[in-house]
Structure formats: structure tokens, C-alpha cells
Amino acid sequence: MDIKDLKFENGLITAVAQDYKTGEVLMAAFMNKEALEQTIETKRGYYWSRSRKKLWKKGESSGHEQIVHEILIDCDADAVVLKIEQIGGACHTGYRSCFYRTIDGKVVGEKIFEPDDVYKK
């Protein structure tokens, strides 16, 4: 399997970041080909921001970067899982994981930083 064999829809592929030790799902995002190439080359998480329409390195402003240990491709070649070591929180809201609440709104995740302290404007 090669990057050229992956199915990028509208130039993007779904990427799930998962803790490489515990299996906890930390975040879901999108990657374009360049983001995936940068991730493979640097062993750091790079993604495509649909809202900002630009490539971004996880942790570039917060310091909460991702060290990539392994990349898995699903059976349809239209999604990837990054097995990562998360430095700091994965979620920009201050939680370890972006999946910190239930469908009912109950907070079940661990808040590990205050966004206002990290993302100074």
C-alpha cells in the first residue's frame, strides 16, 4: 500500500488519533496528501484544517504535539489511524481527548489544561 493507493475524498482522508499504549481515541481530523506525507516524514501529527484551509502541525501553538508510532489504513483505504503518543492534551478545549462527553452531555473526560492559559491571543 502506498499513499497513491489511498482514497482521498475531495482531497481529504479521515484520520483518527489513538493513544498507542491504551487505545483511547483522542481526536478525529482530516488529512490531505501533504499532511500525511509530513506525518510520515517527521513522525509528528499534521492535519488539514477545513475551517482555516491550511496545513497545521498538532501542537504548533499549544506545544501539545503528537509523536506518531504507527499508521494503520482501513480496509477500504479511505481512513487512517495514527497510533500516537500525545504530549499534553489532544483537545483545544483543554481535555486529554476530544471525546470527553457522552451523547447526553455528561463530561467523562479529564481536563488537563486551561485553553486561555495556552492559547494566548
Question: For the residues shown, what is the average pLDDT?
Answer: 96
Share of helical residues: 10-25%
**Principal-axis shape:** globular
How many H/I helices?
A: 2
Largest sheet: 4 strands, mixed
Low-pLDDT stretches: none
Strand order of the largest sheet: 2-1-6-5
What would you note in describing this structure?
This protein has 121 residues and is mainly beta. The protein has one domain (3-87): Phosphoribosyl-AMP cyclohydrolase (Ubiquitin-like (UB roll), Roll), CATH 3.10.20.810. Helices cover 12% and strands 31% of the residues. It has 2 helices and 6 strands, in the order E-E-H-E-E-E-E-H. It has helices at residues 33-42, 115-118, and strands at residues 13-19, 25-31, 46-49, 54-57, 66-73, 79-86. The strands form 2 sheets. It has a 4-stranded mixed beta sheet with strand order 2-1-6-5, with helices on one face. The protein has a two-stranded antiparallel sheet with strand order 3-4. A hairpin with a 5-residue loop joins strand 1 (13-19) and strand 2 (25-31). 24% of the residues are buried.
Summarize the model shown:
With 121 residues, this protein is mainly β. It has one domain: Phosphoribosyl-AMP cyclohydrolase (Ubiquitin-like (UB roll)), CATH 3.10.20.
Would you spell out the secondary-structure blueprint of this structure?
Blueprint: E1 13-19, E2 25-31, H1 33-42, E3 46-49, E4 54-57, E5 66-73, E6 79-86, H2 115-118
Parallel strand pairs: 1-6
Antiparallel strand pairs: 1-2, 3-4, 5-6
